[in-house]
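Lecture notes, unit on protein representations.

Consider one protein chain, 199 amino acids long.
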Amino acid sequence: MAVREMERISQANTSADNEPVNDRLGPFNAFLGTISFIAFGVISYMDLKAPLEIANIVFGAIVGLLAGFLCKKLIYWLIALLNKDLRQQHGKEAILKTVHRSTVFMFPFALMLALSTFLLGWTTGGVFFSAAVMNTGVMASAEIAKLKGKAAIKNTIVTSVSASIISYSWLLSAGYLKNAPGLLKSLAGFVLPLMGVKI
């Protein structure tokens, strides 16, 4: 009886160790991650001389949401692809929730970006975004290790590679997309009057 009781306690402890932390806060953490991506987009494409310009805010929010979607999907897809046993044991939904939960670690960097932009006047959105995404990749790997019950170097590599791809794409596209809000505003100013819409 004593041996069986010790085995039961050991199994319970193992199950608790493998359970993802802050699972009850998962939806809230995922929400903070989404808000962080939006904040990065809005602040990065904001004109500090006219911070309330609607075209810049909307465009930045769209870019941030798109970057967040691609980042989470890429990390999830690669992890799910390389961890067949994890898919079979926990299902794809558990992996996706784990990746979404990891994006909460974007929030401190989004906060630092906001403070540096509005208080110091810095324009270093790309630097903060790169650091935030790389940190998210590392934490996603750690969360997957907890879900799996053991660490795997392949997961650390794929999450780091995924984060690097998103980070590089963000930095590369920023130069091309910087003037997009102004162009969209000019286009709207030309098209909407033709449609009878007063602006």
